[in-house]
Amino acid sequence: MTLPPIYTHTPTDLLPAQSVTTFPVNTFLENLAIAPSGDIYITNHEIGEVVKLTPDGSLTVYAQLSGKVSGIAWVAPNQLLVNGWNGEGVPFVAIVSNGEVEFLLTLPDAIFLNGITPLSAHRYLMADSYRGAIWAFDLATKTVELWLEHPLLARSDETSAFPAANGLKRLGQTLYVSNTQQMLLLQIPLDEALSPQEPEIFIQGTNLDDFAFDDHGNLYGATHVYNSVIRIDRDGHTTIVAQAEQGVTGCTAVAFYGTDLYVVNNGGMFLPPATGVEPAQVVRLAAGVSGAPLLIEH
Question: Is 81 exposed, middle or buried (0-12, 13-18, 19+ CB in 10 A)?
């Protein structure tokens, strides 16, 4: 597979990088959530594990789920919301508390649940990468509804293995969504009731998986098959801040903890580098700025 050379002329300003831990070759780290304590919870997609990485570097299996696990988000102290496919291949939503898994519901009308982000105190949005939609899950009622389905969230080629709607984050009254397959970063305005308005294209020709905002509104994104982390400022200018040499080959997700940006990857499983698939890693980038607090409205 030959990738379009979309970052050939992108300026580079590499951040100091440190490998925090490594995993065996062919480990697909998909998403991460960081607790106030600095503990990092990572979804090990292919084998249905949630892995816990403590600040001192110890690594344990926090929870084991049947099937595959994709998205992860904090919902309460010691409580994580996760999604994926169960052992029968049906999309599910579950709560993980102190390592115990409580399956809440299945979504037979969903196809590929992925990134999760809070919309309000009890509502969480989940990207559906193959249906081209976003689902809203209500933590209080344990119910789910189709929040938005739109061509800009879908694949332009349904035979493509690349996910469409993938990462998503709310910043103020705007939801940002990456469509990896269409190489788009979208903005979805929110009304006062936090209902979605018509999606708009913010950036074209960018290959984003998951991403996070700093407190200045700059976006830091994992480019997955482009083996780099990029920063997109509020004006839409892109800068490469980490490359394969910094250990981010096959990077899938990023999250801030203080002024550090943590990156998880799969070592290039989806599109191996010429030297072969590398061990998966968690890499810490010294961003020098802190992450934006997630805006939660009660």
Answer: buried
Q: How far apart are CA 207 and CA 203, in angstroms?
A: 10
Contact 137, 146 (CB under 8 A): no
Name the DSSP class of 119. S
For every one of its 298 residues, what pLDDT tens digit does the chain have, with 9 covering 90 and above?
789 999 999 999 999 999 999 999 999 999 999 999 999 999 999 999 999 999 999 999 999 999 999 999 999 888 999 999 999 999 999 999 999 999 999 999 999 999 999 999 999 999 999 999 999 999 999 999 999 999 999 999 999 999 999 999 999 999 999 999 999 999 999 999 999 999 999 999 999 999 999 999 999 999 999 999 999 999 999 999 999 999 999 999 999 999 999 999 999 999 999 999 999 999 999 999 999 876 555 4
Domains of the chain (ranges, CATH numbers) = 27-217 (2.120.10.30)
Q: Two tokens at 202?
A: 């913010």
